[in-house]
Design a protein that fits this description.
The chain is α/β, with parallel strands linked by helices and 262 residues long. It is built from eight helices and seven strands. It folds into two domains: 7-189 and 229-255, NAD(P)-binding Rossmann-like Domain (Rossmann fold, 3-Layer(aba) Sandwich), CATH 3.40.50; 191-227, no CATH class. Strands 3-2-1-4-5-6-7 form a seven-stranded parallel β-sheet, sandwiched between helices. Helix 1 packs across helix 8 (230-240) and helix 4 packs parallel to helix 5 (156-176). The protein is globular and about 55 Å long. The model has no long low-confidence stretch (mean pLDDT 96). The structure holds nicotinamide-adenine-dinucleotide. Nicotinamide-adenine-dinucleotide binds at residues 11-12, 14-18, 35-37, 62-64, 89-92, 112, 143, 145, 188, 190-191, 193-196.
Length: 262
Amino acid sequence: MTKEQRVAVITGSTRGIGRGIAEQLGKDGYALVINGSHQDTCEKAARELSAKGFQVVACAGDVSKKETHDQLVKTAVDHFGRLDTYVNNAGIAQIGNLLDESAEDFHQIYATNVDSVLFGIQAAAKQFKRQKDGEKIRKIINASSIAGHIGYEQLGAYSSTKFAIRGLTQVAAKELAKDGITVNAYCPGIVGTDMWDFIDEKMVEENGGQKGQYLKAAINSISLGRAETPADVADFVSYLASPMSDYMTGQSVQIDGGVQFI
Ligand SMILES: NC(=O)c1ccc[n+]([C@@H]2O[C@H](COP(=O)([O-])OP(=O)(O)OC[C@H]3O[C@@H](n4cnc5c(N)ncnc54)[C@H](O)[C@@H]3O)[C@@H](O)[C@H]2O)c1
């Protein structure tokens, strides 16, 4: 990995996997645009990353809105002069059976998980096409999931959004290849973040049992025998964001410690 400075936007990077990706890309020499829904948590994350010696700017905003992505790209360009990598990481989970899913909840999870990826692809590609600097490959990287390869009960709406992201990733890769833009997705397994605490809590509410029981059962399904960390995911995203993956596009790769083998 070269230490030449590049510029990355990472959505949903105040905590969890996105925060891990920001830290790794910072180490890789990237200047960072940090995003989350709330201004205060976004600025706090930016201060903490900045204290580690990274060049960071915060740009809060709801990723389900198109204008947030335009603002994220503008922030990258205004502060750092350009954009090299755009990570569509932000997402939410919901727990419940499909028959109980309300139209409102379904639209909300699609807006946050899928509309956001479309808008991120559009905003990033527009800027990449504007920047003309030879043969350099630009990167769009999306968060799918093992639940985007196999549907999980009580994670039906969530699973379907993660399947949709694989579709968007493939089509964007085909449409943007001629412009020197690659589009790939990472598909984590069971990562110990706030999202899994939420899933476990809601599973207890839906099905009974003890706090931590559903997370423990999920961890037991991992061949490598431990929960995934944000850093495990970030190591792979570092590769996707580097020139080492320049010949790879349209792929949605499971990085899950051996949960699914398809
Ligand atoms: N945790 C897992 O086990 C797991 C597994 C597979 C895939 N993923 C995916 O990885 C991504 C990150 O997950 P995580 O576990 O770090 O989640 P998390 O809940 O810990 O963090 C989510 C981040 O996204 C931000 N966010 C949520 N909604 C937003 C919105 N509307 N606008 C802007 N920011 C918003 C939050 O502020 C936060 O920074 C998600 O897309 C998730 O679906 C997670």
